[in-house]
Amino acid sequence: MGPSDRHDRLRRWQAASLLAAAPIASLSATDAAAAAPLQSPPGQQRIAPAALVERLHQRVLSGQSATATLEHWCAEHGLAEQARVRAVRIHGHDKLAPADVLQALGAAPGAELRYRRVQLVCGSRVLSEADNWYLPGHLSPAMNQVLDNTDEPFGRVVSPLGFQRQTLADQTFWPPRGEGDHGVILEVRALLRDRQRQPFSYVIESYLLQALP
Question: Is the Cβ–Cβ distance between 72 and 66 less than 8 Å?
Fold first, then answer.
């Protein structure tokens, strides 16, 4: 065998070796890609709805104002272009205060008690509905005027009182209680107390399915 024959055989062997190795290299790359964990882009991780409900639950319990908590929640989850919560009052829907509400407020017989029902809305989403019984005598005349004549959220109006929020009862629901976008995912009963620890407001808050991103 001459030198040229040996050279031709060497080239054919190298070519065959490369062809044989190619599928192995391709398979290894495929295996590596399959083994790598799938990662969502930042901010796009999917969270189970029940976990989101519990996250909102904890935020509400740790916050001092439902309005402020929902504004932060709305901004964090991009629920609206402008993360500002507004109150939409529901008029003509008075409720007498149950006995447990009167007892919690320490309302004396004959004491003036006002009722306010609102929806807290961010963008086009109704995040929660609330029944609120409060003692106007514990608020300033200016606060009462705003509450009587505007849709401003209660927590924002009475914030100068430096109030603290005491949770009396709370319960989550998944699947939601009720149907459609107005299904309730969280209900909280809370008492608001001023700096002197005097109770002045009792609220029943129902957080709705629309609060979830």
Answer: no
The tokens of 77 are what?
């989850």
In whole angstroms, give the CA distance from residue 30 to residue 12: 28
What is the DSSP code string of 41-63? Answer: PTT-----HHHHHHHHHHHHHH-
Round to whole Å and give the CA distance between 186 and 16: 68
d(CA 142, CA 148): 10
Single out the residue of 167, 147, 144, 141 nearest to residue 66, CA to CA.
Answer: 167
Q: Is the peptide bond before 175 cis (omega within 30 degrees of 0)?
A: yes
- Whole-number Å distance between alpha carbons of 197 and 213: 36
Instruction: Name the nearest CA neighbour of 98 among 87, 107, 86, 89.
Output: 107
For residue range 37-69, list pLDDT tens digits in order: 323 334 446 789 999 999 999 999 999 889 999
Strands annotated E in the chain: 85-89, 114-122, 125-134, 164-177, 184-193, 199-208
Q: DSSP class of residue 179?
A: S
What is the distance between the alpha carbons of residues 82 and 162, in angstroms, rounded to a whole number?
26
pTM of the entire predicted model: 0.75
State the DSSP code for 178: S
Q: Which residues in the chain come in under a pLDDT of 70? A: 1-45
Of 191, 188, 190, the closest CA to residue 206 belongs to: 188
